[in-house]
Amino acid sequence: MTVKEIISSTRSYNLHSHTQFCDGRADMARFADAAVKAGYKHYGFTPHSPIPFHSPCNMEQSQVEEYIAEFNRLKDEYRGRINLYLSMEIDYLGEAWGASHDYFSSLPLDYKLSSIHFIPVADGETMIDVDGRPENFLDKMSKYFDNDIRYVVDKFYERTLEMIEAGGFDIIGHFDKIGFNASHFKPGIELERWYQKHLDNVIDAIAAKGIIAEVNTKAWEAPVGAAPSQIATYAPRLFPSPDTIRKLVSAGIPVAINSDAHYPERISAGREAAFQIIDS
Ligand SMILES: [Zn+2]
Ligand SMILES: [Zn+2]
Predict the structure, then answer these.
(1) Which of 48, 68, 108, 277 could serve as 22's disulfide partner, Cβ 3.0–4.6 Å?
(2) pLDDT in 10s for each residue of the chain, 280 residues
């Protein structure tokens, strides 16, 4: 079954997860088990792809063979109970690296998920992960970006459009995620006109290419290990935001609701909330 067939025929799927092969907190077998218990018919593994430099969150190229072997073992073990899919969350790093590159076509992936987590510093090649926790993002803003939030947001969406144009993938992951950290730096930024224009441009580009847009529910609950005060004030989020989800749906863009779980106990967190928005 293709990913489009899966998401249009059932809600019993989850196509974005992280395990021992990147920054997930449990191994693939535990996720497969949790997926069966949660009643999924289709479950996809998407470790952060190898990239051409070291990152603590990404799988090394040398681990890929072991990842594929473990996948094949589990696929056989779970046959008849759940359909498991081999994939990766592939980083787009500009022309130098992304889902359209030969390396990824050479792997037996069932589908490809493509996301942006890194953007380059203003006048260099150094890539900075802008996807982590807000407190780290604030440090990076002063350390690498001269506190120029407009540069960071513009670059994120510029790279997003380039990634869509380059193609080679089925699903675009959490495409407005920079809004989360950018809002910590400058509250209200996502309501600004220029910011909204970026979102509209991405929606147009997704529609033109016929790819699937992910609704990512990872931030629906406060981070695991958050302090009680943080949990009490935590504002649940979806990527993209509810207004943007509605725009995707009215543009006729196929939408995949994924939990991007790093912990098996969070395997379904936020998915119901996302489906409610689509149904409303
Ligand atoms: Zn991601
Ligand atoms: Zn992810």
Answers:
(1) 48
(2) 899 999 999 999 999 999 999 999 999 999 999 999 999 999 999 999 999 999 999 999 999 999 999 999 999 999 999 999 999 999 999 998 999 999 999 999 999 999 999 999 998 889 999 998 999 999 999 999 999 999 999 999 999 999 999 999 999 999 999 999 999 999 999 999 999 999 999 999 999 999 999 999 999 999 888 899 989 999 999 999 999 999 999 999 999 999 999 999 999 999 999 999 999 8
- Per-domain residue ranges of the chain: 3-279
Going from the C-alpha of 101 to that of each of 109, 159, 173, 176, 272, the distances in angstroms are: 13, 16, 18, 24, 35
CA distances from 165 to 86, 126, 127, 129, 154 (A): 24, 23, 21, 22, 17
Q: Which residues surround ligand 1, an ion (CB under 5 A)?
A: 115
How much distance in Å is there from the Cα of 181 to the middle of ligand 1?
13
93 alpha carbon – ligand 1 mean position (Å)? 13
**Which residue is it, tokens 């967190």?**
269
